[in-house]
């Protein structure tokens, strides 16, 4: 047992003080040296290789060296076939520089690195743009190369946990993971910032917001504890704020262990500032997570700089909370924090007990009703859109029916045979005009040429694009209810009339002095009009 005992944090005389950020986030971090767990036969095994899917190879490097080939990593079952395949790299031409394609990692081929979001003891996290869908994500790349199969298995465990809790509202949404060049890459949803960054930005977080953060994290923690898992690294740095700027999500599952199998074998302690006292004795339990969450709430609510060691570190773990800090928050919140930071793990409230606190219960109820209202309004909006779409469809359907009906009426109207009355040749221009025939040419066609505006001049002057002049006398069709009194005319028509007079058998037929083109579903109707000129 002594083997697992951690060295006591060094004592340092100090006073509690407010947080001060000097740009180096990790400068006040003290991490007790990690003990190296024994790899024993019966001990906790980090990766169940039966469940691990090392699948498809998409790397472009030499196939002799399998670590150079990108392998998708997933512990999801066959019901998630996508999890076991890596998306194909986008076209090489899309990648900015034209260096040797073969040298690029899957990460470089698929993502554009935009910024560094953060760094922890295990990995660096980058904001990236996926070249295939253009969306923004976060990709965590392990800092150290896989030193051996055991180390690799431990790192890969994080993927299993991320996948397990990806669907939880208060845990990070996980996309996929792969390994290449002895490093692990994890693609996940991009969050706005960590809770620690939020605290740096706001300094004083309103108490109501603290309660909401507490509720989010208790819910996330409960889902872990319900599966007998412990996080062991609860701290504001490992809590991310979602894109909605409200929801807090638990991240960094790198140290998660199974309570039943873990005790002291492969468990690694987290940040000493948030560490429960019993961890020093190698006791890892769910209560340790509750303590870490409690002390993190103290930090957030009182804007307090947590000691990483020394007498103040021990004071906080003996249940002595600094009055001048804690007095600033409500008695209700004080009590909750104290109950989470009890020195004896057995005295600490569990996540279930904490979630049944009246204030948190009320908040959960409000949230539920808000969710219901949101759902209702969303489904109302959706159904309104559907109904509107249907109405529009019905409207257009009705119009179409009406249109076809008119069309039918129009087509099947009995055609009165044209019986032009021959009248004596006019003696004067005015009587000549009156005697001109009213001709209606129906041109039906579906080819582009038939759809163009057709003018009498096209075929009466010899430039007959439709070759109507070769088909003898144009049909006189009484098809459209033409406005016989229409006065609009085309100036070019006058030139064609003499040809008509010469060739047409209706040269002597009287006609209204109207010429018009109208189109009604690919039909052209012409009424020739005799112009004075
Ligand atoms: N999905 C994300 N969106 C935005 N920022 C992120 C995301 N994931 C991580 N970060 C940032 O990167 C930092 C480091 O990430 P993470 O905690 O996962 O790394 P780590 O090496 O496991 O850290 P630790 O030292 O706590 O073990 C976080 O504190 C956070 O600021
Ligand atoms: Mg972290």
From TrEMBL:
It catalyses: L-seryl-[protein] + ATP = O-phospho-L-seryl-[protein] + ADP + H(+); L-threonyl-[protein] + ATP = O-phospho-L-threonyl-[protein] + ADP + H(+). Residues 1-41 are annotated as: Disordered. It is a peripheral membrane protein. Residues 111-360 form the Protein kinase domain. InterPro entries: CC_SR_Kinase, Kinase-like_dom_sf, Prot_kinase_dom, Protein_kinase_ATP_BS, Ser/Thr_kinase_AS. It comes from the Eukaryota. SMART domains: S_TKc. ATP binds at residue 140. PROSITE patterns: PROTEIN_KINASE_ATP, PROTEIN_KINASE_DOM, PROTEIN_KINASE_ST. One of its GO terms (biological process) is meiotic cell cycle. Its EC number is 2.7.11.1. One of its GO terms (molecular function) is ATP binding. It is found in: Golgi apparatus membrane. Keywords: ATP-binding, Cell cycle, Golgi apparatus, Kinase, Magnesium, Membrane, Metal-binding, Nucleotide-binding, Phosphoprotein, Serine/threonine-protein kinase, Transferase. Belongs to the protein kinase superfamily. Ser/Thr protein kinase family. GCN2 subfamily. This is Membrane-associated tyrosine- and threonine-specific cdc2-inhibitory kinase.
